[in-house]
Each structure stands twice: as C-alpha cells, then as structure tokens.
Amino acid sequence: MHGVGILLLLCILVFSCGGWSDLLLNMGSGYYYDGEGPSSNMIFLSYSEKDSSIDEMSVYPTVKNFAYDEEFVIATQVPDKEGIMARVFKFVDPSFEVKLDSLIQNDPYFNNIFANDTNYWIIDKARHIVLGPYNKIDFAIKSKELNISKKLIKDFDKLN
Length: 160
Hints:
The chain is an alpha+beta fold. The protein has six helices and eight strands; from the N terminus they run H-E-E-E-E-E-E-H-H-H-E-E-H-H. The protein has helices at about 1-15, 80-90, 95-105, 110-115, 135-145, 150-160, and strands at about 25-30, 30-35, 40-45, 55-60, 65-70, 70-75, 120-125, 130-135. The strands form two sheets. The protein has a four-stranded antiparallel sheet with strand order 1-2-3-4, with no helix packed on it. A hairpin with a 3-residue loop joins strand 5 and strand 6. The longest helix is centred in the N-terminal third of the chain and has 15 residues, at about 1-15. It is globular and about 45 Å long.
C-alpha cells in the first residue's frame, strides 16, 4: 500500500506541473535540451556558467530524440515551422513576422532544414560545431567519420 501512495504522489506532482513538459537538461559543455512541450523541444548553447540563457540555437524545434556523451550530442528533428518562427521571432514589431516567414522560406539554411521530414544532427561539444541537417544515410556516414562511440550510436538507435 505504501508503494501506491508514492506512485499517487508522483503522478500528482508530474501532472500538476503540466505533465512531462518544461524539462531543462544540462548535457555538458554549455549545451542544454529544453523540452517545453511537444512542438517546442530544442537544443541550445549557453555561454553562461551561472544560468541557462539561450545564446545560440543548436537544433531548432522539434527535437524528437537525442543522446549524448562527453564528446557529442546527436539528435533527430522533425522541423516545425511555427516552433522555429517562435524561436527566431524576438521582436515586438508585428511586421517582422512577415519578414521572418520570408526568411524561413528563402534562406538556404532553413531550406535544408525543411528538405527532409526528419533531420539528424551532430554536435561536437568540444569544438562547439553543429553539423547537419543530415538524412539518415549521411548521418551514419558522418558518425563513422567522426568516430562517434558505438555505445552512443546504439543508445540513440534505441530511441529512433
């Protein structure tokens, strides 16, 4: 009966805080996974050691799965235009949203993101380099090229 009470308390705590959202995970070397909800999950870099402010976006929403070790973060992303616009949109001026929509449609970086239904990303934590987006085949090739650990790839594959 004691176990049921603990389970009930856990459920109350989880669901009273909005479910499983609002997860902020420190992956080391300044990289964080921010799980604000289904269409807002992202990975970013913070230069501050005191807080987790967003200094650089690494993988825009929606990050579906990720794995990391001391050297790398690897992730899958299903691009979410609204989620991406919300992350890029930092101004109050309403006319900027139209410019932002045009930027996302015409910029080669964003065109690459929207070229695939699912993208694969590699973050080299030591060098602060974000590689991608890749399709699954190119991701496998680049992973081997970078000598990403077999354990990390295996852990990642279990999630996908």
